[in-house]
Amino acid sequence: MRDNMTHHCTILRPLEGESDGPPCPRPGRPAPAGPPRPRPGWPAIIVYDEECFQGRHHEFTSECCNVMEFGFESVRSLRVESGAWVGYEHASYQGQQFILERGEYPQCDAFGGSNAYHIERMTSFRPIACANHRECRMTIYERENFLGRKGELSDDYPSLQAMGWCNNEVGSFRIQSGAFVCYQYPGYRGYQYIMECDRHCGEYKHFREFGSHCQTPQIQSIRRIQQ
């Protein structure tokens, strides 16, 4: 392994949990149309029911369990005004998940970035409170339940194998600080799995805890989430 990976075939740290999102006690609250505006530093996202920022829209500053409760069939475009968010294909934080960082997303295909899979809708979403690009540390393990060879990570890794990881799978994670997005393939492609230090006690013991859509422990690239 290279410099910032501890040997043992070392690399990362994650969290755990059966649900990808909060228990869905309430839908997100749209921010008021006029003053007062969200305080500086608060997360804010504007969602639209048509592509290219057209049609009905709402601004949210907290999680939304089901955007259909606000009169949307789905979200077709969006603007992230501040903070980092994770979007989900289905209500109640289920289905494909994808990272949404500050910027504009004019259509659904943009939600997944370089995702190798087509995304047709976003129905729920939530802010990532612990995202901190400068303070991110995680440990990855070869096998589930934190067994086998391990590695410490604190940077972006477009290819884990190129940096010395032993195979194309990660069995479990511990996240010490910050938040990461893990990708199925090298080059930040394929399914995305969001790993946060303040969710699930920072531990992901088995690939089924990576996300409701996760079918295998295949993880080949990882990067820090921008706040």
UniProtKB/TrEMBL annotation:
This is Beta-crystallin A4. It comes from Oryzias javanicus (Javanese ricefish). Residues 22-39 have a biased composition (Pro residues). Homo/heterodimer, or complexes of higher-order. The structure of beta-crystallin oligomers seems to be stabilized through interactions between the N-terminal arms. Keywords: Eye lens protein, Repeat. InterPro entries: Beta/Gamma-Crystallin (IPR050252), Beta/gamma_crystallin (IPR001064), G_crystallin-like (IPR011024). Residues 1-39 are annotated as: Disordered. GO terms for molecular function: structural constituent of eye lens.
